[in-house]
Amino acid sequence: MTRIRRPVVAGWFTEADGEEGFRLLGTRCSACSAVFFPREDSLCRNPACEGGALAEVPLSKRGRVWSYTDGRYRPPEPYASDPDAAWEPYTLLAVELEAERMVVLGQAAPGVTVAALSVGAEVEVVPGILSEDADTTWTTWHWRPVQEER
Amino acid sequence: MNEVAVLGAGMHPWGKWGRSFIEYGTAAAGAALADAGISRRDVRSVVGAGSVRCGYPGHVAGAAFARALGWQGARVTSVYAACASGAQAVDTARAQILAGIAEVVLVVGAESAPKGFFAPAGGDRPDDPDWLRFRLLGATNPAYFALYARRRMALHGDTTDDFARVKAKNAAAGALNPHARYRTPVSAGQVAASPVVADPLRLLDVCATSDGGAALVLSSMDYARRHGAGDPVRIRAVSTVTPVYPTTEPGLPDIATDSAVAVGPPALGFRESIARAAYEEAALGPEDLSLAEVYDLSTALELQWYEDLGLCPPGEGAGLLRAGATALGGRIPVNASGGLASFGEAVPAQAIAQVCELTWQLRGTAGARQVSGARAGMTANQGLFGHGSAVVAVR
Questions:
Q1: Which domains can be identified in chain A, with CATH numbers?
Q2: What ipTM is given for this predicted complex?
Q3: Which of A20, A116, B217, B283 is the most buried (most CB within 10 A)?
């Protein structure tokens, strides 16, 4: 069976194939340079700004762990999970992006546990799969620890 | 001073009773009216703190309580501000009294909480951040509490033992409170033995969701004097501020903070600014407080509030706890009521219940959990989506 790949939210991340070019997509105000994620497309939320045009901008690929936790119990809907399958905990990260000076949440890539994380560790954003149903693979972003370069 | 009198306070015990929130609110209102020594016919305005997850649609708080108490043709208001609903109800009542619109106002909040994690309203609503955080991340409320807790451990050296001690302290106080849902002492060892919900927080670190109801009768100072309450507990400040752009901590239900690229972070974080606004309005400071009731949604969050209320310098919350300062009998008891640890959260009732506790403490009628010589108290809480909430009461 072939499922169609669809982003769980449209316009929040790049959809081209490949890990290298994958980025979260925000918007930037042309007047004050404030960055927004999730994207603002109507009004710049900086109260000191007169309000400029908001243009799409890719966010930094790498950031540092601000904090982390995991979900040991099944979250309620609309989180998609098979109620007949045993619950598999996943890891949740809050990641600080230096250039954007903001913290962005996201699930960790599969297999990353809290034991492997520490505040301040470097992570990168990679494409991931949130869930699959009969005809759709719902895509999302994941945070994954950056391997030490050898 | 722009003060209003607390003529009466009343609560329906917290629990998991499985009945209508109207019943809890009506019982609490009856208790508050009896405490005030006035008839429900004397009430000229009813302000209901709303319960969206359970009371809506179909039951809009203000009118639902006014109807249950018997329509009086009184002014009616319904407010919803998530966990801060109760404080906004108090604020609305106060504004009506100070504006001369009503002399006596009944404030009521009550909840019938569903079992398990709070969940967003149903339907496909991708423009709602509260829906999105569940859909995209499965991020429950305890997940956010856990992110804050882990951050404290990394920044300030807090330990899970510290968190467990908060629960033990609050359970000891709650054991003395007939309105609390949980009234048995809990040891730090019991916390450590409970299952992890969201690392590093365990089941007994995270507050439950409860049924309950709380009510206040507020009046003008003139009315209080005319009715023989010459020295009532007074509400001196109500803070209902939002955060200041840009936020620097991912708040519920957000998926990201603001960016501090265009404008640097504000001098005060959100919770600090809630307390600051209350202190400024009340013209007093942390050193003047006899006690505080803070929103211990998690044990770790209580330590954060110590710092944000200025009870100790940033990063020293765990030290304040370890020194016993925030326990009953300590320098500045926090959550003498037992807190959410002993009550579980009944969302629209909780901020009102905090003021009920201050009222009894300031009157000196809090029984076995009485803070001796209590003169001033602050409540603090933070509602989903950026609703600040703090109340200062004095006597």
A1: 60-145 (2.40.50)
A2: 0.97
A3: B217
